């Protein structure tokens, strides 16, 4: 079944991008005439995905204004954004996983072609989109995979034992949605829940469940997390602006 729904996690302020994020969330940073969020929505819409839930937090009112200009796009406020990590945002959106769904980090810039590849190749109940590079650093969400299956994922994994990185885009099909949400609820019932990333849940599921990976090597994407990332993202979107 074709995935026609997405959830974008955009609750955080993006403190590492100050002063750009002093009065707006980083999903609203301008990149070549559009905000990061608008680039995401356009890439999804180009693939038939217009049913989008944006989980908001810091300056939710500004994100609401963008959502109001798009048919099918709605927001969901996370009142715990200032004390919880992104697992809290997933928990807030747990009822939105009512059919096959993409889950996208609010700071991941993706092209329509990349989204198309994920939709075409994400066949496992849970699929993690990955890229590859010669070396991985401490801030990378590192992945160990074998024969297309994810074995481990996390920032603290030894770089020399990993062979990919997560870009912050996942696909959930069929039973994968329930497996994921049940694990999210279990961790959220522990003291560590609000301080956890949702990919910690994926790592915990990898031993007993088939977590697939989709390689997007050769596709264009960017993570906007540090000031230098903004310049790179603007250069990338300047090229995209001539195409879509």
From TrEMBL:
GO MF terms, alphabetically ordered: nucleotidyltransferase activity
Keywords associated with the record: Magnesium, Nucleotidyltransferase, Transferase
Gene3D superfamilies on file: Spore Coat Polysaccharide Biosynthesis Protein SpsA, Chain A (3.90.550.10)
Segments forming domain MobA-like NTP transferase: 6-130
Keyword Magnesium tagged: yes
KW Membrane (keyword) present: no
Protein's recorded name: Nucleotidyltransferase
Organism of origin: Sphingomonas oleivorans
């Amino acid at each position: 079944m074709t995935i026609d729904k997405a959830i974008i996690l955009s609750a955080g302020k993006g403190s590492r991008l100050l002063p750009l994020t002093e009065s707006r969330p980083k999903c609203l940073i301008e990149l070549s005439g559009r905000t990061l969020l608008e680039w995401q929505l356009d890439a999804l819409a180009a693939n038939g995905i217009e049913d989008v839930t944006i989980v908001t937090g810091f300056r939710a009112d500004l994100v609401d204004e963008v959502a109001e200009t798009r048919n099918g796009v709605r927001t969901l406020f996370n009142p715990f954004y200032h004390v919880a990590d992104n697992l809290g945002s997933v928990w807030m959106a747990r009822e939105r996983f009512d059919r096959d769904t993409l889950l996208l980090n609010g700071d991941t810039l993706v092209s329509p072609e990349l989204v198309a590849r994920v939709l075409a190749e994400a066949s496992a109940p849970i699929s993690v989109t990955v890229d590859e590079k010669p070396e991985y650093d401490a801030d990378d969400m590192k992945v160990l995979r074998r024969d297309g299956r994810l074995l481990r994922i996390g920032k603290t994994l030894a770089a020399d034992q990993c062979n990919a990185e997560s870009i912050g885009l996942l696909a959930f099909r069929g039973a994968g949605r329930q497996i994921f949400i049940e694990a999210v609820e279990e961790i959220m019932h522990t003291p560590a829940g609000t301080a956890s990333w949702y990919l910690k849940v994926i790592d915990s599921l990898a031993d007993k469940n088939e977590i697939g990976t989709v390689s997007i090597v050769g596709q264009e994407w960017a993570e906007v997390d540090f000031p230098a990332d903004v310049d790179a993202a603007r250069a990338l979107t300047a090229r995209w602006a001539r195409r879509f």
